[in-house]
Structures are given as structure tokens and as C-alpha cells.
Amino acid sequence: MSDVKNITSKILKDAEVERDSILAASEDEKNKIISKRVNGAKALESEILSKAEQEGKSKKDRIISSAKLKVRNDKLAQKQSVIDGVFDEALNKLCTLSEDELSNFIRRSILSMDLEGDENLVLNHEGLKVIGLEFMDSLNADLKDKGLKGEIRLLKKEGSFRGGFILEKNGIEINNTYEALISSLRDELEFEVAKVLFS
């Protein structure tokens, strides 16, 4: 009987040792899993924070860059507006030439051109008030003196431009309107005008 008791006691002790060993191993495994998960969560947290920080910095840089670009574009638009105003003012001043200045401009321009001398002269409403037959006779005489035909005709139809003139023959036009002259000079003068205005 005491042998049975000893055996039972031994079995119970072995079971307790086994239980304690299993519980210790289980606790160890639990701690390892928790530690692994905590470390994984910390790594993920660090990765997420780093990514968020990079995205935030990148977004901030994009916003700053976009704002700088907008400011630069606004400045350029303002400068362009001022330059446009300068050329518009030049056109307005040309349109207020006196009758003598307009006559001299037309005469000098036509006499300096390479033409045959039998073209049609097109003027706007204001030009038709200033240029008459006497001017045309004098101009044609000057053209003949240069060895040209001297048969330029003044058309009575008004041109739809602000000032200057057009010479036309057989559908080909020589555009000497103020608008065309300012436009052709603008490309070469715009940089100089900008330097004067903004330096």
C-alpha cells in the first residue's frame, strides 16, 4: 500500500514538475511572442513615422516650390503688363503725330522702300483727312526722280488700322502700319525696355 502511495506521490510530483516545466516554457514562448510583436510594432511605428515625416517634408517642399513658382510667374506677368503698357503708349503717341509728321513719315518711308512705284496707298480714316492729291503728286514726282514709275494711287477705302499706311499691289501688301512697326521692333527692343524698367 505504501508502494502505491509512493508511486502515486511520484506520479503527482512528476506531473507537477512537468506542469511547471510546460508553464515555464509556455510563459517563455508567450514572452518571446509578445516581445517579437512589440519589437515589430515599434519597427512598424518607426517606419510609419519616418515615412510620414518624409511625405510631410516632401509635401512641404512641393507647397513652398509651388508658392515660389506662383510668385515668380505673378512677377513676370506684372513685368510683362508694364512692358505691354510701354509699347501701347508708344503706339498711342505715334497715333497722335501732327499732320506734317504723318506726311513726312509716309514720304520718307515710301521713298526708302524697294518698290516699283505703281502701288496703291491705303490709309486709315485720319490718314485720308491729311493726305490729298497735292501730296500724292509731290510723292510721285520724287519717285520719278529716283527712276521709279511714280504712279502710286491713293485708295479711298479706309484701312482698319490705327495709323501708318499699307502699300498694296496684286494682293501683296507692304504693311507699314504703326501696329506692324511696333510689333516688328518689339522683339528686338523688349529686352532693352525691360532692362531700363527693372534694373
Structure description:
- The chain has a 4-stranded mixed β-sheet with strand order 2-1-3-4.
- Strand 3 (164-169) and strand 4 (172-177) form a beta hairpin.
- It has 199 residues and is of the alpha+beta class.
- Helix 1 (2-94) crosses helix 5 (178-198).
- 10% of the residues are buried.
- The chain is built from 5 helices and 4 strands; from the N terminus they run H-H-E-H-H-E-E-E-H.
- It has helices spanning 2-94, 99-112, 125-130, 133-145, 178-198, and strands at residues 120-123, 153-154, 164-169, 172-177.
- The chain starts with a helix and ends with a helix.
- Helices cover 74% and strands 9% of the residues.
- The chain is rod-shaped.
- It has 2 domains: 1-71; 95-198, ATP synthase, E subunit, C-terminal (hypothetical protein PF0899 fold), CATH 3.30.2320.
CATH architecture of the largest domain, please?
2-Layer Sandwich
- Dominant shape: rod-shaped
CATH topology label of the largest domain: hypothetical protein PF0899 fold
Instruction: Domain count, please report it.
Output: 2
Structural class label: alpha+beta
**From the alpha-carbon coordinates, what is the Rg to the nearest angstrom?**
47 Å
> What is the average per-residue confidence, as pLDDT, rounded to a whole number?
89
Sketch the major β-sheet: 4 strands, mixed
Residue windows where pLDDT falls under 50 for at least 5 positions = none
Binned, the helix content reads: over 70%
CATH superfamily label of the largest domain:
ATP synthase, E subunit, C-terminal
* Percent strand: 5-15%
